[in-house]
Specification:
The structure is a single chain. This protein is α/β, with parallel strands linked by helices and 143 residues long. The chain has a single domain, classed as Zn peptidases (Aminopeptidase, 3-Layer(aba) Sandwich). Strand 2, helix 3 and strand 3 form a beta-alpha-beta unit. Helix 3 crosses helix 5. The chain is globular. The termini are far apart.
Length: 143
């Protein structure tokens, strides 16, 4: 919910031209893509393409998943404006759909780094544990 607050504040008060968030949001992303790839959901094709290119350049692989509008129905609530948990199936997509409710019309992308933020074993020159994923990617996006 804190991330939703930050997205709402940024989109309303900072007036960004694009908005990208990174979060270890769902275990579902770890199950879907493992530790090697970051899941991305984006409301804007140009931003998504720019992120994919930055991922290729930086060596931080991204996989774009769709924001499926029909899944928003699973976020309906009888006691609140919106439910922040949409059930087990398509958990990462539903979590991104929840976040999308707070960004308005700003071109936005969510990078779910739940799997890629941590490496369970060394791999080549890459150490075990925290990976720092997203730093090189965002540097290349902004360059």
């Amino acid at each position: 919910l804190i991330l939703a607050d930050a997205l709402a504040y940024a989109s309303k008060h900072l007036k960004p031209t694009r908005l990208v968030d990174l979060a270890t949001l769902t275990g579902a992303m770890l199950i879907a893509l493992g530790h090697e790839v970051t899941g991305m959901m984006a409301s804007d094709d140009t931003l998504a393409e720019d992120l994919l290119k930055a991922g290729e350049k930086s060596g931080e692989r991204l996989c774009r998943l769709p924001l499926i509008p029909e899944l928003r129905a699973d976020l309906k609530s009888d006691i609140a404006d919106i439910n922040n948990v949409g059930g087990r199936e398509a958990g990462s997509i539903k979590a991104a759909l929840f976040l999308q409710e707070f960004v308005g019309d700003v071109p936005w992308a969510h990078l779910d780094i739940a799997g890629s933020a941590y490496r369970p074993a060394e791999k080549g020159y890459l150490p075990k544990h925290a990976t720092g994923v997203g730093v090189r990617l965002l540097m290349d996006l902004l360059a």
